[in-house]
Amino acid sequence: MATTDGSMPTVDVDAVKMRAVQVNYPKKKPRINLEQLGEVKEPERRSMYQVMLQNLKAANRATFLHRIIYVGEHRLAGYEPAKELFAAIISQCNETYCIERLTGFLLYYSRHFVHMVEGDEDNVNKHLRLLLACEAPLGRTKLLIHVSNINQRFFEEWTSYTDAPSKLLERLDVDADLQQSGRCIYNCIKKLYALMGSLAHDLLGESADQQEDLATLPSAENSLTSSKVFSYGSLGVADAHRFFLPEYELLDFVVQSSFTMPLQEYSELYGVVPMRDIYKGGRRLRGDRATEADRLQIECGPCRTTSSPTTCSSGRTSAPPSCPRRRASGNMQGRPAPPPARSACSK
Where along the chain is composition biased (Low complexity) (predicted)? Predict the structure, then answer.
């Protein structure tokens, strides 16, 4: 359509496109001015890692603490050699690099010992390797309990104790079931915790008395430091702790029980990720309901055979023909074994 002057009208192409396609874009949200909110502010988001760091800082720790208690037999000459042996291992672990130093408690009997160790995971396992590698005359040693991420230490330093416990009148059956054995093991742990708590309480009271005595001494004597390895055998308060001592028969039960783990096996578990059957790609056995074909399939797994087991007319299941075990033994009727099957990888 021409205009009055004869020229063609001009068309705004962009305006036509905008009228044809209308897109409702979301409007930009206005930025919130935190100063206008006053005391009502957006809460700060914190990760679980930040919460863990805050808890460790509040507890004055660098990492998590772990506690293990193990019971064992020994043929050491006496209390002093046993104390020197375990104290030397603890000192060797603390003198090398460690995140959290080791502290603990040693209970010595004439034939048995109980050792409790607290520290970070690497240092605890380092102590176990040194103990198992030494040539000390130690007998069977069993793990009594392992506790991860403990609340606090029993002792600030390594200490030891020895005394004669009372005799247990009840006879303990080593071949008892899990329920009865668990009751005896729990009783042993309960007595050890009560003993360590009583000793730790007396040790804290003794340290407070020493601090009061040192405050009255001259400054030259105030700078002297005492040994950090404490021993209780000769103190007059020993009779007060005898009530919490586990009996000889109870410790012997823990060592002989089949429900307690040997310390060597526990030490070998550190740093080893168990391989589950679901990651192996093979078929798992289903206990007593597993068929003969399942067992043969598992047995032929190392042979790298992919064919399934064969079944003869009598119903017996045999290994697949490509299994090297069957090729090595030949056929049951005396015929030569079939040639090995060539896979795509062997071409």
Answer: 305-318
The percent of the chain in helix, strand and coil, each rounded to the nearest 5, is 40, 15, 45
Amino acid symbol at 336: P
Amino acid at the residue 135: E
Taking CA atoms, 196 is separated from 32, 229, 263, 340, in Å, by 58, 15, 22, 68
Listed in order, strand segments (DSSP E) in the chain are 66-74, 103-108, 112-119, 138-148, 158-162, 230-231, 261-262, 310-311, 317-318
Strands of the sheet with 103-108, listed across from one edge: 230-231, 158-162, 103-108, 112-119, 66-74, 138-148, 261-262
Bridge partners of 158, per DSSP, are: 104
Q: Which residue has the tokens 């055998």?
A: 233
**DSSP symbol at 307:** S
Q: 117-154, pLDDT tens digit by residue?
A: 999 999 999 999 999 999 889 999 999 999 998 988 99
**Tokens encoding 237:** 């308060």
DSSP per-residue letters across 66-125: EEEEEEEEE--S-HHHHHHHHHHHHHHHHHS--SS--EEEEEE-SSEEEEEEEE-HHHHH
Cα 238 off chain centre by = 34
- Asked if residues 163 and 206 have their Cβ atoms less than 8 Å apart, the reply is no
pTM: 0.62
**Distance from C-alpha of 25 to C-alpha of 95, rounded to nearest angstrom:** 67
